[in-house]
Please model this.
Amino acid sequence: MLKTLPPTLREKKRYIAFKILYDEELKEGEVVNLIRKAVLEYYGFWGISKANPWLVYYNFPYGILRCQRDNVDYVKSSLILVREFKEKPINIICLGVSGTIRKAKIKFLGIKKPKRWFIIRREKLRQKQK
Model:
C-alpha cells in the first residue's frame, strides 16, 4: 500500500480566479479544453506538465484554476492570450491569485459560506422551536 507524501514534499499550489467574457455560456468541458489548449500553445508540453493546470471550480462566467506556485505567471499569461473560441471573440480576465480555494472564492468571486458554528447554532434553534 502506498503512503501519502508528507506536506514538506508536496508541490506548492496557487489558485487563479478568472472571469470569462463570451457571448454564450460555456460548459465545464469546453473550458477545460480551452485552458489546456491555451497553456499548450504558449508554454508547450514540458510547461503544461510542469505547471499542471487544473480546473477546480466553475460556474459561468467565473472559475478557479489550480496550478504550481512557480508557474503562476506563465498560466496567467497564457490565459490572457486566448482571443478566439469557436470563431467568436473571447476574453479571459485573471481576477487574482490566492493560496487557498476558500480565500479565492471569498476575495475574488464574492462567494461567502456561513461559518460552521453558525449552522450548528441555527439547527439547535430550529430544534428548540419544534
Residues 13-129 form a domain with the Alpha-Beta Plaits fold (CATH 3.30.70.3250). The first strand starts at residue 13 and ends at 21. The chain is about 45% helix and 25% strand. Strands lie at 13-21, 54-59, 62-68, 84-85, 88-89, 91-98.
